[in-house]
Recover the amino acids of this structure.
């Protein structure tokens, strides 16, 4: 008995250490990015065009590019994702068609991001003739983000109690009226949380935009959806591997801006989630 | 008017539901459309098992075996690191950690999931590479090992959260029954809870593998990027994904180099398809057992 | 098709002629319902008269709730349900001649547990009328007030209509649900053990409201509480294992039941 207690203590100690090994690097990485990134931040860095082959100046076009791509992704993926989740959770019966949709979503979620890049190149850039453009990049990112939004929305929809639907039907509501009247309003916080998280991931992605939109060096702002743009993740890749002699300060600050954008989105998502939990009356 | 709206919105709902199937099909079709052109010049066998990847020499050689092995090396290393750590962390978070800490740990894991892979690649180049270089006295620290370590961390959120879910959904009665018989908490965990959660753990490992094998930017940056047959973890390698990312920019559209990169895409698509279907089967089995 | 319809209409006129001048609101004949292949109702043939309160009593799993939910086709929400036989509402076949959404508007239901929607008190009651296309704000406000009054809860909530319905007590919530059902202006109100979770005073208030509502509505009350049926219903039906054992005037059922099983149940020997 004493032995088994001792084993237990050792085992729990090892597991606590494992947890520490996972969590500690996260904090160290964040600390490094902040420590070396903050000094390089300035209004000029955030709002100026890059100069001297990206070795000086700011990263304004990359920030704008990432924002534009994120918005573009949202425009295509949110309606499609929410409607698809409504189909699965509210309309679909238990049949082979539903199963096929589910398997497709699981596979969409698992396809490597670079394969999305190839697909975007093949379909949007070449076949549909959009060229490397905001349109092609947003569509590629949107399809990649779709499974995240569908899964999160579906979870939010299924957490709305079944009785609310029964009440609505009992008052003579059609299925859509029920979805619109009682299901969606109560699922919106969950949908928002999942959607923002999905978009934050899209904002940080590099591989899908490599061949579909990202510009190596383009010190101007886009004028139409058929323009290329710079984007923060790709800019980090370029600065750290493709251009010699870029000061570490610029590299770190660029990383900090991307991490900052992604984390702000995550914080907003977490805020909505926690606020909703408190407000929930059922 | 609202009747009409309802008619259209319901049509839109059905179409959106079917869209996922269409997208998977489209992705596969476009990979095939571009990728299969390669095999009019190169036979499948020498593509898969050729040991030389010299796509732009004359004549070009399109053997992807070094790339496949590069992916396997990095993935194997990452899984060997990630699974024990992830399992330990998941058990700790789900069963051992006090409630107050649990929330913080979960946020930490979520934070890790939120860091873009390009940032991890950047940190890998700047910190992990030099550290490994010093420890193992290498010319460069950018090796398969560096890739494995970095990818292990990227796979961690997937692995930890799925294992944790599996542990949490083991019925309370199993645990109580075991404790009532006088077993310690730890004995209960490894004799009762872990076996009951086995399907979920397998699913987590599969999805972790899927995450690692598909990762692109970080491996491109920190594995040293050399398309040679790997023999050791302390040697630079090149994965399937990194090859596409690194070379598509230079490949002339319509050339056999271009087609060969799409052909690699087909291989990746098939691998991820198999992995995800397997993971789904494990997940469903886990649920059906309860 | 046309012939078929006229055939269906015929029984109505026959029954109407043979019965009292008030006529029948609902007539079921040979109604059978299955859930996932398990039979829940067996050959139920009965009539609900205009403006009566019909009590349905019986032990649990006797098919009472299935019967109620079939009357407005709510049973169809369960994917494994199957129905055979006929239900006529005002002489019209509810499965063939009435759109199910319209049917549910005409035949409202109050569930066993108070189930307010996560909306304000006002919006809970206004939910139904809005569904059915009423947009005029004044009309909706009137309907809400009138419905809350009919459900005997107006005085308690008139100053807090904007509050979340979950802030009400259980008894108030249930009367709110009755008001919500009334607000779609049904002909028939079904109650599925409406007082099962409530205290005696709340129960009393709901029973009073039901008696008051008799003037306008036909009501069917399913209850586990035999005494409640004795108190409020005009006629009472006794269900057992999916079959209707006996139907008669409430006084007759409670004083001189014809079937021994009815006697055993109401005198508390089982159930």
């Amino acid at each position: 008995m004493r032995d088994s207690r001792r084993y237990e203590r050792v085992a729990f100690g090892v597991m606590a250490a494992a947890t520490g090994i996972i969590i500690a690097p996260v904090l160290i990485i964040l600390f490094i990015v902040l420590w070396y990134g903050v000094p390089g931040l300035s209004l000029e860095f955030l709002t100026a065009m890059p100069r001297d082959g990206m070795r000086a100046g700011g990263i304004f076009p990359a920030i704008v590019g990432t924002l534009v791509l994120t918005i573009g992704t949202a425009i295509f993926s949110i309606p499609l994702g929410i409607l698809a989740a409504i189909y699965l959770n509210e309309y679909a019966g238990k049949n082979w068609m539903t199963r096929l949709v589910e398997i497709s979503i699981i596979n969409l979620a698992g396809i490597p991001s670079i394969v999305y890049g190839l697909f975007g190149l093949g379909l949007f850039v070449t076949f549909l003739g959009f060229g490397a453009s905001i349109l092609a990049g947003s569509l590629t990112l949107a399809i990649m983000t779709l499974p995240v939004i569908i899964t999160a929305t579906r979870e939010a929809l299924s957490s709305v109690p079944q009785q609310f639907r029964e009440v609505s039907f009992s008052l003579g509501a059609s299925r859509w009226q029920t979805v619109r009247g009682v299901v969606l309003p109560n699922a919106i916080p969950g949908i928002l949380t999942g959607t923002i998280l999905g978009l934050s991931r899209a904002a940080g992605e590099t591989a899908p935009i490599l061949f579909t939109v990202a510009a190596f060096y383009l010190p101007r702002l886009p004028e139409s959806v058929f323009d290329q743009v710079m984007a923060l993740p790709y800019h980090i890749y370029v600065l750290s591997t493709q251009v010699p002699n870029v000061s570490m300060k610029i590299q770190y600050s660029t990383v900090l801006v991307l991490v900052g954008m992604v984390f702000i989105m995550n914080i907003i998502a977490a805020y909505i989630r926690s606020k909703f939990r408190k407000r929930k009356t059922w | 008017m609202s009747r009409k709206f309802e008619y259209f919105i319901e049509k839109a709902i059905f179409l959106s539901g079917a869209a996922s199937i269409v997208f998977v099909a489209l992705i596969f079709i476009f990979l095939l459309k571009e990728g299969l052109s390669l095999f009019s010049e190169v036979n499948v066998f020498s593509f898969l098992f050729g040991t030389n990847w010299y796509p732009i020499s004359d004549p070009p050689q399109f053997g992807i075996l070094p790339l496949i092995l590069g992916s396997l090396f990095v993935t194997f290393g990452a899984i060997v690191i990630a699974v024990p750590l992830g399992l330990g962390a998941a058990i700790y978070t789900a069963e051992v950690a006090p409630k107050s800490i649990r929330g913080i740990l979960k946020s930490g894991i979520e934070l890790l999931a939120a860091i873009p892979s390009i940032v991890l690649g950047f940190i890998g180049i700047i910190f992990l590479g030099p550290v490994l270089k010093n420890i193992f006295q290498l010319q460069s620290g950018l090796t398969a090992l560096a890739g494995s370590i970095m990818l292990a961390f990227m796979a961690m959120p997937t692995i930890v959260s799925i294992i944790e879910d599996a542990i949490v959904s083991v019925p309370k009665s199993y645990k109580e029954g075991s404790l009532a018989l006088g077993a310690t908490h730890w004995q209960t965990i490894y004799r009762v809870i872990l076996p009951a959660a086995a399907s979920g753990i397998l699913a987590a490992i599969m999805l972790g593998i899927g995450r690692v094998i598909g990762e692109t930017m970080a491996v491109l940056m920190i594995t040293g990027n050399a398309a040679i047959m790997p023999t050791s973890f302390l040697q630079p390698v090149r994965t399937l994904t990194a090859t596409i990312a690194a070379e598509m920019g230079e490949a002339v559209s319509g050339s056999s180099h271009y087609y060969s990169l799409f052909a690699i895409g087909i291989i990746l698509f098939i691998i991820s398809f198999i992995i995800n279907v397997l993971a789904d089967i494990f997940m469903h089995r886990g649920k059906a057992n309860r | 098709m046309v012939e078929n319809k006229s055939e269906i209409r015929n029984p109505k006129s026959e029954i109407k002629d043979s019965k009292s001048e008030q006529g029948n609101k609902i007539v079921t004949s040979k109604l059978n319902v299955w859930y996932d292949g398990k039979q829940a109702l067996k050959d139920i043939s009965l009539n609900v008269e205009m403006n009566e309160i019909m009590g349905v009593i019986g032990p649990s799993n006797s098919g009472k709730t299935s019967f109620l939910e079939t009357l407005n086709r709510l049973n169809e929400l369960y994917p494994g349900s199957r129905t055979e036989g006929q239900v006529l509402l005002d002489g019209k076949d509810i499965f063939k001649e009435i759109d199910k959404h319209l049917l549910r508007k005409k035949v409202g239901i109050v569930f066993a547990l108070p189930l307010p929607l996560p909306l304000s008190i006002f919006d809970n009651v206004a939910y139904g009328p809005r569904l059915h296309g009423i947009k005029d704000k004044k009309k909706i406000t009137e309907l809400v007030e009138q419905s809350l009054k009919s459900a005997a809860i107006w005085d308690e909530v008139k100053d807090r209509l904007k509050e979340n319905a979950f802030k009400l007590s259980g008894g108030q919530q249930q009367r709110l649900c009755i008001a919500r059902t009334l607000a779609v202006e049904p002909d028939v109100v079904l109650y599925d053990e409406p007082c099962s979770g409530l205290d005696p005073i709340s129960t009393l208030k709901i029973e009073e409201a039901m008696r008051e509502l008799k003037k306008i509505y036909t009501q069917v009350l399913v209850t586990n509480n035999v005494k409640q049926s004795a108190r409020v219903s005009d006629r009472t039906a006794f269900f057992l294992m999916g079959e209707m054992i006996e139907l008669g005037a409430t006084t007759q059922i409670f004083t001189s039941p014809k079937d021994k099983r009815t006697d055993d149940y109401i005198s508390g020997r089982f159930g």
Q: What stands out?
A: The mean pLDDT of chain A is 92. The beta strands of chain A are 50-51, 56-57.
